[in-house]
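Worked problem 6 (solution included).
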Amino acid sequence: MRWTTIFRLGLINVAVALTAVPIESTLNRIMISELRLPASLVALLIALPYAFSPVQIWIGSFSDRHPLLGLRRTPYTIIGLILCAGGSALSPTAAFAMAENFWLGLSLGILAFGAWGMGFNFATVSYLALATELSGEEYRARTVGVMWFMLIVGVIIAGVSLSRMLRDYTPAALFTAFYVVCGVALLIGIAALWRLEERDRAPRTPERRSFAQMIATVAGTPQARLFFAYLVLLLIAILGQDVLLEPFAADVFGAPVDVTTRYTSIWGAALLTGLLVTSPIARRRGKPFAAAIGGSLVALGLASIAASGFLNIPAIFVPSLIIFGFGSGVSTAANLSLMLDMTIPGHIGAFVGAWGVANSMARLLGTVLSGFTRDALTNLLDSRMLGYVVVFLLQAVAMVISLMLLPRISAARFREEAAPSTRELAALAGEAQG
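Solution. The predicted structure is:
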């Protein structure tokens, strides 16, 4: 497989991510801190892609059976990119409309964030399917690694660029920044897709697996249930802060828009460093050890971020953010490897699909619960600072609980438990077909 092909696949990954950066690193802060919209509402809108995530199964299956112009993945990826870019570009208009006429703005917000969310799911399942087909088993790990590396670098560059474009913040500058980022994302994605996929490929008959079968497979395996719960708690801790980190810095420390936007780049750089150092740690001490180190750093970082607000010491915040980002990188890389170990031959798709459900569930729960908890505690305690602090501490507690589950997880034990249940499922499927 050529490096140029891997690079182009990485560019598609970057293009989709770019449409999310201005929403999750800038607009959330504007909506909560500048426009005074409820954090719970912002969290619900941003969580729409994860609420729509089950549609990925249908999109993938439909594109398998219904190529457009002889292409199975490219057209659906382009549809997703257009929806992502269009929805993201429309989102600041919806945000300001909500501040002036809430119900009209909310309707526009559902349209904008819904288009972005649906596009995210369309594009993600399509380009990942394309990457799987083009890379093959031999080059798949390398392809995924390069795509993830390029994603983080792209997020860092986008964060820095947004920070510079919004140095002198005005609503007009915000709109311009969104249009520029979304336009660049669309151009990068379409250029990377150009003639990447071959036309008229041989038809395939992939195994279909229903939600009921997937759930039965996971529910019938104690180790799978344990790992599912571990992943949900872990990812709630890592991802639940996305919607609140920049508003926290704005509301508690009074940081301007360009500074809070820059925090995304700081976090991304720390996360990237964590990704790079995980492999040697995992080789020497094992993946569970690396996962434990990463999780411990995440918990420490979240607790330190909470302490910076409670003690009103801004100097603690950036070092805490670096610790949190570095731990997130180590934890992400280690647990991704561990996740791939928690599969068995012939049923990899079912279990990876289950871990994907855990990821979407954690993103949805973490984002929504963080927003609602912040609002409820702010009103109850009459303190914005305490609302944020309690949320960060709860996320640290979630990480600690996940670390308590980690020693009980064993890939070897999982394979022993999973093999009988998957054989039973295969037999049932054979009987149904017969």
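Discussion: Residues 207-428 form a domain with the Growth Hormone; Chain: A; fold (CATH 1.20.1250.20).
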